Amino acid sequence: MKFRARPRPESPGFQMTPMIDVVFLLLCFFVTSQLFAQWETEIDITLPTARTGQLPQRLPGEIILNLYEDGKVVINRREVAPAELGVMLQRLAGLFPGQPVLLRADQATPYEHVIAVLDLCRQADIWNISFATGVPEER
Q1: Following CA atoms 109, 111, 58, 45 in sequence, which dihedral angle do they give, to the nearest 10 degrees?
Q2: What's the angle, vertex CA 44, arms to CA 40 and CA 46, rounded to 5?
Q3: pTM more than 0.85
């Protein structure tokens, strides 16, 4: 009896289409997450509220200065000494005139700490400063 040999199925090889789909989805995810990572805000800061407060339009390249009630300044999750902050602001103003700065001060921060940061901005010739406020809760 003679049996016919069945042809062996060929290996499909490396499929590029699913790999391209996965890489494209990863690219979309990381681009989106990077956008939200740039909107760095410190969770420990309780902003003062204002009835006219609203979510600001985000400006490209905006620097966010988080100011705690003890006078500590945090930028990009890194604590910055006042002298280092002054040098950094002067470099930014020299490279990018009109550099926008968002000051997020805790509601319990003494006025003197806010004025110290504003003075450093003025010494660096930074004039485009915004103050972050929260929206009061409606009851």
Answers
A1: 0
A2: 95
A3: no
